[in-house]
Design brief:
Layout (H helix, E strand, L loop, with lengths): L1 H15 L20 H9 L4 E8 L9 H12 L4 E5 L10 H7 L6 E8 L4 H15 L5 E5 L1 H35 L2 H24 L11 H22 L5 H28 L7 H23 L1 H8 L18 H16 L20 H13 L2 E8 L12 H13 L3 E5 L1 H8 L10 H8 L18 E8 L7 H14 L3 E6 L1 H35 L2 H24 L11 H25 L5 H25 L7 H34 L1
Antiparallel strand pairs: 1-3, 1-4, 2-3, 5-7, 5-8, 6-7
Helix pairs in contact: 1-7, 3-5, 5-6, 6-7, 6-21, 7-8, 7-10, 7-11, 8-9, 8-10, 8-20, 8-21, 9-10, 9-11, 9-18, 9-20, 12-19, 12-22, 15-16, 18-19, 18-20, 19-20, 19-22, 20-21, 20-22, 21-22
C-alpha cells in the first residue's frame, strides 16, 4: 500500500508538476510587489526593453579587421525572434558618436560589444536562440560571451533546475544508504524512503495546485520536505527499536505514544518558522513560507500515516535493548558550559560581518563561463543596471538654458564615480544627434525631437519624457566594487542634488538587490526573533518548567547565532537562496530539544534519579543519527556548481552540528546548573 502510494505520487509529480524553476526578470520580486513600484514607474515613463550585451573578442587588437565576421554575426542576431534591435561596429560609428563610444567600445582594443534590445520574451526561450547563433559564429577568430539581465536570469534558472534534479536525487540516494548503514534493516530503509517520497510528492502536487510552482527558493523544496519527514521517522524508529516484545500492534502504539507529542510540537515550531516568511515582501521568501508550511503538514501527516504501517508490519522486533548513547556525568557541567559560552560566543561575533548584499558575481562559480563573461562585461562598463530619474527643482523643462548644463555636469560626475561604468543620458543622445550633418545648428529641444523620431530609432524616448520634465540616467554599475549598494546610491543621489537637480525615482536591478539585502537582513531578524519568542511559549508547554523552558530558549538561540556568525567570520555571503537555511537549522534544533525534554519530563515523573542522563542516553542516538544523515545529505549540495546551492548546504550542515551539540551537551548541563543555582 505504502509503496503503491509512493509510486503513484512520483508518477503524478512527473506528469502534473512543472519542475523547471520559474525565475523572473526582476529576480526577486513579483511585478505587482510594492518594491517594484519604482520599476513600473520608470518602465511606463521611459519605454524600452531589456538589453543583452555580447562581448566579441578577436585574436589580435585589430577589431576593424574582423568587420565581416562581426557584420554576419550582427545580422543573424538581429534576425532572432525576440530581438527588437541592436547596435555593433557594423551598424553604428563609435568613432564619431559619443553614445556608441560608450556602449560599443571596451578598454580592451581587441574586443567590442554588440548590444541587443530585446522584448518581453521569456529568457528560457530567448537565450537558446541567441546561443544557437553564437555557436554558429564562434571560432578561433571570434570569442563571444553573453551578459545582461535576461542571460543572468536564464543561467540562474538552469543552475536551479540542474541542482533540483541532480542533487536532490543524489541526496535521496545518500539518505537511503546512510539509513541502511545506521539501521541495517531493509524494511526501515524502504519504509523511510517510501514515506519521504509520499511526503515530497504530496507537497509538490499541493504547491502546484496552489499555483506557486518552483521558484528561486522552492527549488530546494524536495530536500527540505525530505528532511522534515525524516526527523519524525527517525524518532519513531528509535522508540520502536527501544521497545521489547512480540505483539506488533502494542509495540507500534507504544512507539506512537512516545513520539507523537514531541513530533506535534516540533511540527508546530517548524510551521511557525515558515509562516514567519509570509510577512516578507520578496516573492521567493513568501513562496517558500507557503510551500514550507504545506511541506511541514504533509511531512507530519505522512510520517504518522504511512510509516507506521510499514514499521508495524515488516520491521524487525527487538529481542534485547540496543546500546544507548552515553555522555559524561553532568556534575561537571559548569566547565563544559563555560567552554560552550566561549566557543559559541566567539562565533556570534561574526554577525556584524555578515554579508547579506552579495555581488551578482557571487551567484556564479569562479571559472565558470558565465562568471568570466560577466566579470569581463563588468570590468568593461558595469553589469548591473541602475536607473536614476531626475527633474528640475520647482518644475520647468530640462532643456532650458539654465537646466541643460546641469545634466551635462551630472553625466560627468556619474562617469567619474568608481562604482559606475557606462552612463547613458539625454546629453549623450543630443551629442549623438549632432553627428548628423548640420544638426549642430539646431537647439537642444529640436535635437531631442529628432532623436525621438524614427530617423534615429526613437532612441530619446527611453531617456526623456515628452513634456521634457524628467530625464533618465541609465547606469551600468560595477559589481566588483566592494561597497554597500546603499552607500553607493546615497552618494549618487548626493551628486544629483549637488548638480542642482532633484532625484525623482531610483530603479533597476542594482536597486532591487539593495532592497533584497535589507529584506534578507530583516527576515533573519524578524523571522528568527519571532520564532524564538514563539518557541519560548512552546518550551513552557513542553517542559512544564520555567527553568527548563528558559534553558531550551537560550540553547535554541545559539543555533542561528553560531551558524550566521560562522558565515560572517568566513566572509561567506548570505543570498536569498542561502538565507532560509537558518530557519531549517532552527527547526532541527527544536526537534532534538523538544523530544529530549519530553523524555526527561516523563522520566522525572516516574521518579528516575537522573532524568537528564537517562534522557540523553535514550534520545542521543536518534539525534546523532538524524544529524549525520542530514549533514551528509546536504553535504552533496556543496558539490554543486551553483554557489548559492553550495552555501545553502553548508549553512544547514553548520546549523545541524550546532543544534545537535547544544541539544545533547549544553542543554542538559545548563538546565542542571540553573536548577542547582
Amino acid at each position: 500500500m505504502a509503496l503503491g502510494a509512493a509510486a503513484v505520487g512520483v508518477i503524478a509529480v512527473l506528469v502534473f508538476v512543472d519542475l523547471s524553476p520559474r525565475v523572473q526578470g526582476d529576480f526577486f520580486f513579483a511585478y505587482d510587489d510594492p518594491q517594484m513600484q519604482a520599476v513600473r514607474e520608470v518602465a511606463d515613463a521611459f519605454p524600452g526593453g531589456a538589453q543583452l550585451i555580447l562581448r566579441v573578442t578577436v585574436p589580435s587588437e585589430d577589431v576593424a579587421g574582423h568587420r565581416k565576421e562581426i557584420d554576419e554575426l550582427t545580422d543573424d542576431l538581429l534576425a532572432v525572434d525576440g530581438v527588437e534591435g541592436g547596435f555593433s561596429i557594423t551598424t553604428a560609428d563609435p568613432e564619431n558618436s559619443p553614445l556608441f563610444q560608450r556602449i560599443l567600445r571596451t578598454p580592451d582594443p581587441g574586443a567590442t560589444n554588440i548590444v541587443l534590445q530585446v522584448d518581453g520574451t521569456d529568457p528560457e526561450l530567448l537565450l537558446p536562440r541567441i546561443e544557437a547563433v553564437v555557436d554558429t559564429h564562434e571560432s578561433d577568430q571570434l570569442s563571444i560571451v553573453i551578459s545582461g539581465v535576461p542571460a543572468i536570469v536564464e543561467m540562474v534558472r538552469r543552475s536551479l533546475y540542474r541542482d533540483l534534479i541532480v542533487f536532490s536525487s543524489a541526496a535521496i540516494v545518500v539518505f537511503a544508504l546512510l539509513i541502511g548503514i545506521i539501521y541495517r534493516e531493509v524494511a526501515i530503509v524502504v519504509g523511510t524512503i517510501t514515506t519521504c517520497l509520499v511526503s515530497v510528492s504530496a507537497t509538490l502536487l499541493i504547491v502546484q495546485a496552489l499555483g506557486m510552482g518552483i521558484g528561486l527558493l522552492t527549488a530546494n523544496l524536495v530536500t527540505i520536505v525530505f528532511v522534515l519527514t525524516l526527523s519524525h521517522v527517525v524518532f519513531l524508529t528509535a522508540n520502536w527499536r527501544a521497545a521489547l516484545g512480540t505483539d506488533r500492534p502494542t509495540l507500534i502504539r507504544g512507539a506512537l505514544s512516545k513520539t507523537l507529542e514531541g513530533s506535534f510540537w516540533s511540527m508546530t515550531t517548524t510551521l511557525l518558522g515558515f509562516a514567519s516568511l509570509l510577512i516578507a515582501t520578496a516573492q521567493p521568501l513568501r513562496e517558500l513560507g507557503m510551500a514550507g508550511m504545506v511541506g511541514t503538514l504533509t511531512a507530519f501527516t505522512t510520517a504518522y500515516v504511512v510509516y507506521p504501517s510499514v514499521l508495524g508490519k515488516w520491521a524487525r522486533v527487538q529481542a534485547s535493548p540496543g546500546s544507548n548513547f552515553r555522555i559524561p556525568s553532568l556534575r561537571r557541567g559548569k566547565g563544559t558550559l563555560w567552554f560552550a559560552v566561549l566557543l559559541f560566543g566567539s562565533l556570534s561575533f561574526g554577525l556584524p560581518q555578515l554579508d547579506t548584499d552579495p555581488s551578482l558575481l557571487a551567484y556564479f562559480a569562479p571559472g565558470s563561463e558565465l562568471r568570466e563573461g560577466l566579470a569581463l562585461v563588468d570590468a568593461d562598463g558595469g553589469s548591473s543596471t541602475l536607473d536614476i530619474v531626475v527633474s528640475v527643482p520647482g518644475g520647468g523643462t530640462v532643456t532650458s538654458p539654465e537646466a541643460y548644463p546641469r545634466l551635462d555636469a551630472l553625466q560627468a560626475e556619474f562617469e567619474a564615480d568608481s562604482a559606475v561604468g557606462v552612463v547613458l543620458s539625454p546629453t549623450l543622445i543630443v551629442d549623438h544627434a549632432r553627428t548628423i550633418p548640420l544638426a549642430g545648428l539646431f537647439p537642444v529641444e529640436t535635437l531631442l525631437d529628432l532623436a525621438s523620431s524614427d530617423a534615429l530609432g526613437s532612441i530619446a524616448l527611453g531617456f526623456v519624457t515628452p513634456d521634457r520634465a524628467r530625464v533618465r540616467y541609465s547606469l551600468r554599475m560595477r559589481e566588483r566594487v566592494e561597497e554597500p549598494r546603499e552607500e553607493v546610491m546615497a552618494r549618487l543621489t548626493e551628486k544629483v542634488e549637488e548638480a542642482g537637480l532633484h532625484t525623482e525615482t531610483i530603479a533597476g536591478l542594482y536597486d532591487l538587490q539593495a532592497k533584497l539585502a535589507r529584506l534578507i537582513a530583516s527576515s533573519l531578524r524578524i523571522g528568527i526573533g519571532g520564532l524564538l519568542m514563539l518557541f519560548l511559549g512552546i518550551a513552557l508547554i513542553v517542559a512544564r518548567s520555567g527553568f527548563t523552558a528558559v534553558a531550551m530558549w537560550v540553547c535554541l538561540g545559539v543555533v542561528p547565532l553560531a551558524t550566521l556568525g560562522t558565515f560572517g567570520h568566513a566572509r561567506i555571503a548570505i543570498d536569498i537562496i542561502t538565507s532560509p537555511a537558518a530557519n531549517i537549522a532552527l527547526a532541527i534544533g527544536a526537534d532534538s530539544m523538544i523530544h529530549l525534554v519530553i523524555r526527561v519530563r516523563r522520566l522525572a515523573a516516574r521518579g528516575v534519579s537522573s532524568p537528564w542522563e537517562d534522557g540523553v542516553e535514550q534520545i542521543g542516538r536518534p539525534v546523532m543519527s538524524a544529524s549525520t544523515i542530514i549533514c551528509v545529505g546536504f553535504g552533496i549540495f556543496i558539490l554543486s556548481s551553483f554557489p548559492p546551492t553550495q552555501r545553502f548546504g553548508l549553512a544547514v550542515i553548520v546549523g545541524t552540528i550546532v543544534a545537535a551539540t547544544v541539544a545533547l551537551v549544553v542543554l542538559p548541563r545548563l538546565d542542571t546548573v540553573i536548577k542547582d543555582t
